[in-house]
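Budget justification aside, the reviewers requested a transparent look at the raw inputs and outputs of the sequence design task funded under Objective 1. We therefore reproduce one unedited record. The lines immediately below are the structure tokens for a 247-residue chain.
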């Protein structure tokens, strides 16, 4: 069954990454995200760093990357007069006090801290910068198709596809258990698709192959058999799997 798609709603959700969705940019500072939490995370200048593998089966816990509407607190150890709270604008930039615009979307906290440090080198000698993530959107996954309660759900812990289906109300009587599709964003224009035979896994009590979700993943349960699906899709081609009325 072909489900109609509302690109303005669903594609936007797939582009957010709440967490660890790998979108590298060619600019000196880069990222994408959103709002919603009072939890604070401090970025030590010069810590972990490195992006996770966004392909299915890759690294499960990539570093968080800033998104639009995220709020960060920037503090200067030796120059507190430059302390400021910044919101990532829709274009991905933040406006630094006296230092101009810096691109923040897509950057880890450590990368953003380095970008701020570089921006202030003309004003301060060896600026000591600390960045705290103040507000952000909690990681989530989307479930659609033939499940009890399609929609967007918080990804609160390590969750597999089978567990996501149960969280979203379980299969309907019309569900095609053997062809559950996991969609994952690879980059700004490409979605990776993987067909999972949950029926076989559950029957054989073998959930070792049950994939773990990444923030922003979309789990789709079809009604009819899917004869063929490409491993990589473009965003417009997602229209046959997503139904805006479910969200």
């Amino acid at each position: 069954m072909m489900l109609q798609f509302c690109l303005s709603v669903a594609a936007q959700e797939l582009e957010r990454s709440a967490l660890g969705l790998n979108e590298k940019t060619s600019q000196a500072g880069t990222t994408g995200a959103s709002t919603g939490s009072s939890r604070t995370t401090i970025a030590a200048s010069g810590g972990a760093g490195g992006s996770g593998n966004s392909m299915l089966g890759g690294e499960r816990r990539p570093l968080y990357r800033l998104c639009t509407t995220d709020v960060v607190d920037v503090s200067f150890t030796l120059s507190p007069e430059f302390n400021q709270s910044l919101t990532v604008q829709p274009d991905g930039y933040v406006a630094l006090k006296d230092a101009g615009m810096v691109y923040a979307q897509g950057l880890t906290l450590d990368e953003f801290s380095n970008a701020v440090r570089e921006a202030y080198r003309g004003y301060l000698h060896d600026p000591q910068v600390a960045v705290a993530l103040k507000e952000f959107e909690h990681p989530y996954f989307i479930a659609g198709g033939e499940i009890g309660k399609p929609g967007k759900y918080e990804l609160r812990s390590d969750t597999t596809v089978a567990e996501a289906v149960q969280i979203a109300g379980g299969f309907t009587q019309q569900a095609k258990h053997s062809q559950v599709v996991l969609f994952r964003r690879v980059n700004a224009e490409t979605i990776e698709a993987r067909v999972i035979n949950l029926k076989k896994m559950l029957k054989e009590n073998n959930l070792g192959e049950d994939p773990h979700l990444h923030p922003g993943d979309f789990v789709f349960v079809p009604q009819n058999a899917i004869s063929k699906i490409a491993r990589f899709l473009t965003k417009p081609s997602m229209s046959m799997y997503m139904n805006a009325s479910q969200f």
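The first helix runs from residue 7 to 15. The chain has a mean pLDDT of 77. Computational costs for records of this kind are itemized in the attached budget.
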